[in-house]
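A further point concerns the way the authors explain their paired sequence and structure data. Since the whole study asks how a given chain folds, the encoding of that fold should be made plain. A single example would do more here than another paragraph of explanation. An entry of this sort, consisting of the sequence and the corresponding backbone structure tokens, reads as follows:

_____
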Amino acid sequence: MKNERLEHVEKWAFHCKNNIKECQKELTPFINAQIENANKFYKKLAKTKNGKEKIKKIKRIK
């Protein structure tokens, strides 16, 4: 199982190294979705009891 994952990572790295423009097009929607999900999470958490304090703790804000 581990070898399959490593092979997949190596294959993906090779793909990105040799096709950077294509790789960026493929990754951009994924990264944007991750950021959007995180922002939704923080907005929802902020509305809960002690939510803003929890966000400060998560983000290590004093």
Remarks:
- The longest helix spans residues 20-46.
- Residues 4-58 form one domain.
- The radius of gyration is 18 Å.
- The chain has one domain: 4-58.
